[in-house]
Specification:
- The complex is a heterodimer.
- Chain A is of the alpha+beta class.
- Chain A contains three helices and five strands, in the order H-E-H-E-E-H-E-E.
- Chain A starts with a helix and ends with a strand.
- Chain B is of the alpha/beta class.
- Chain B has three domains: 29-100, Alpha-Beta Plaits; 141-486, Rossmann fold; 489-607, Immunoglobulin-like, CATH 2.60.40.10.
- In chain B, the strands form seven sheets. In chain B, strands 7-8-6-10-12-13-14 form a seven-stranded parallel beta sheet, sandwiched between helices.
- In chain B, helix 9 (264-274) runs parallel beside helix 10.
- Classes of the chains: A alpha+beta, B alpha/beta.
- The interface between A and B is large, with 26 and 49 residues.
Chain lengths: 108, 608
Amino acid sequence: MTKTGWLALVAAVLLGAPACAGTGQPTHPLQVIIGFADPTDGAAPATLAALKKTSGARVNFVSSISERSHAYQLLCAAGDPACSKAIAALRADPSIRQLDLDQKKDLR
Amino acid sequence: MKTVLTLCTALLGLGALLAGPAAAEEAPEARVIVKLKPGSPLKQIQATSRMKSLGERIGITAKMLGQPSPELQVMRASGISSEALASRLSREYDVEYAVPDRIKRIKALPNDPLFSHQWYLQAASPTQLAATNAQAAWDITSGTSNVVVAVVDTGVRFEHEDLTAKLLPGYDFVLDDLNSGDGQPGRDTDASDPGDYLSTSDVANATLRAMCGGSFATHNSSWHGTQVAGIVAAEANNSRGIAGIGGATRILPIRALGKCGGYDSDIIAGMRWAAGLAVPGLPANPNPARIINLSLAGEGTCSSAYASVVAEIRAVGALIVAAAGNETSPVEEPANCAGVLGVAGIRHMGTKVGYSSYGPEVGISAPAGNCVNILTGQPCLFPFVNTINLGLNGPLGNGYTGVNDVTIGTSFAVPLVSGTAALMLAANPLLGESELMARIKRAATAFPVDATLPTCPAVTADGQCNCTTTTCGAGMLDTAAAVALALEPTAGITVSAAPVVNTAITLTAASNVSPVSWQWIQISGPATGSFGSPAAASTTFTATSAGSYTIRLTITDAIGRTTSADASLTVASAPSSGGGGGGGATDLASLTGILALALFAANRRNRA
């Protein structure tokens, strides 16, 4: 590549990267509701570690719904293939009875 | 439909469960106006003794309360309803007629100054076919503060003059602090609505923008929860504002929606807490709701998370009422979940309002507000008039939506149904959630047909159509008819103890009426058991073999109405007699008997 070419590439990266960041849609971690087969302390480090191991994604506890059902954030964006893979892995886990996306509702 | 509630708890819990309805019942007091036939032998005795003698003849202790005219006497008796006494007296050969001496009330309209604009609470008429006739329901019952409706919404303004006396403390489930905007971290005990506005700075917040998604622009606060709460329970006859449909009903505000709606996890946790179910880390709800109002929705089929919570809440006897949606689309979640009473919106003339979602999951339709005039500056004519706060962002003074404002949405049809259910429970506290739902549907008015509109699911360009029972539910909500149906007989069975082979247990009938006959029969079981008194209000039952039995109680009231209830009993084997005394420890068989006790009110069938 010529010197001019390199300069053009560097300029494009320097100018383009922030521009991309500015126009791209900010992402929010995917939130899910996990229903466990047995009563589970949803916030316990052991539970989070198990979920991380199963899903391959970082997992944050969000809230408890019942003794068997808790909400979590999977630290991957909706639409990210890694997220789909994580969800599939969690759904295949026999200790998990159900997994739903924690979606939003609005007033009607 | 057969519902069998299996109680796998200790009998103390059973006793507590069964004590509720029984405690709510009061001994009836009868007043009946009696006219004797000219040839009645009772006319030979003094007027003051006639009613006593007539009562003795039919086996009751009665006395004369008054004599409105020489031909008429008013009889009074305890332990029987006026209807039952009148029916029994009417069968006497020398009674010309006997009719209940009912209390008449002044048929005054509520004095709430905006009541005349609450067209949806008035009687249906040729110009407002969809009006709910709630006004007539108030002649049957004015509701009771014992019935709690949970409004899962944006929270409420506790200081609103038309609501403040009707609001329970509630809880705030909006976990995300940005979405909540109340300045209090996480879930908290303050269910007040700080406003769900999106300001310029909110819109500039990348985290909030990412969470809200979709179209994200500034908007004013909706005060939606305050509006919905007012439709159910705004104080009536207080010379202020509007009247709520539910009379004395109280509201449990559950805040689950914030600046950009609410997460399922917050809504579901709020629903559970509202119904009295445990939510980890939260105190128990001291005022469980019998009705849960969900004036909210989102696209999608019913998730397993909603299906689970609906099942749990139905199991504790609470009715869930939810909005079909405003998208002219298939019914949204959670109204599309089995066991939820989904509500579609209709115009004042009973056709589907254009924006309402619709489909086979809808259970009932109710007015949702519609504007006849759509040009700027012209009155809407058929909106709701609701309690609201006047602040554009944060709260300011309280007030009401304008009589010409476009205050519409299936959100507002839902509390009409919830308030109706609350009145029904006031009239008959024994009704279960499935009976509430069934009777609301049975009482519904048939949909009218507008020849200019297509039949749903086909719609006009603006979404209107003629409703059918497969697209808009059973019909148009008729509050007065539903409350009247609530008074039809109900039956239930209480069981004295965990059943064990060859040991008599006592079965006792419960009803909201005074039956004149009872019939106990065995429907199924591994062997034929025996009843001690198969035609009495209470009987013993002895099973000769272990296994599952179904017992049916049929009651008949004084005017010939019958209804039935089934109880499923799991009879345990007799405890082993070997071992020479085990120090009082509960053996496995007894424990099984206690834990396997199953009973109660199922297969309730009313035959007029």
